[in-house]
Amino acid sequence: MLKNTRTAARKIVGPVQLATLFSLAFFTAGIITYDSNPGLLAQHIIYTGIFFLCMWIACRLFSDGVARRLRLEGVDTDTAGDMVYTFVIYLEFIKHVVGVSFTLGWIAGTLLCWEYLGDRVILIPVAASLGVSLICFMVTSGLSRFVDQLRWPETEE
């Protein structure tokens, strides 16, 4: 019973703590540039709240991904060794970084299609954007499948 409570508390509190830390850094970096303008300060507080929610969601998704990956490895989050845990975090970090990078590349590619082909018939930029979207999807999906196939080497005794 106590182990389940501790796991649930770690799962809930960990992302909140990380999101709070990142939000405080965001707020502190932004507050330095304001010259006591209450309108800008109010906007910055609102943006910090939105940033907190986004970071909390990202941390929850990452921790859920790590837990899912640990289940794929056949270990529990409480009984996983340090090396297996580090291996799983490393793989999830790679998947998330590549996913964010390809998402930004997808946005840039789609905007490029519309910038250069926007004066033509509407089907041309739509088809080019669809092509960029399919390529980005296939690459990220393939990489995610490949990383999911990697396993921690088990020692046979």
Q: Tell the overall outline.
A: flat
Radius of gyration (Å)? 21 Å
Proportion of residues in extended strands: under 5%
Number of DSSP E strands: 0
Helix content: over 70%
Distance between the termini: 33 Å
List the helices and strands and how they pair.
Blueprint: H1 2-31, H2 38-73, H3 82-117, H4 123-149
Helix pairs in contact: 1-2, 2-3, 3-4
Task: Give structural notes.
This protein is mainly alpha-helical. The chain folds into two domains: 1-80, no CATH class; 81-157. It is built from four helices and no strands. The protein has helices spanning 2-31, 38-73, 82-117, 123-149. The longest helix has 36 residues, at 38-73. The protein is flat. The mean pLDDT is 82.
Characteristics:
2 domains, flat, mainly alpha
What's the short version?
With 157 residues, the protein is an all-alpha fold.
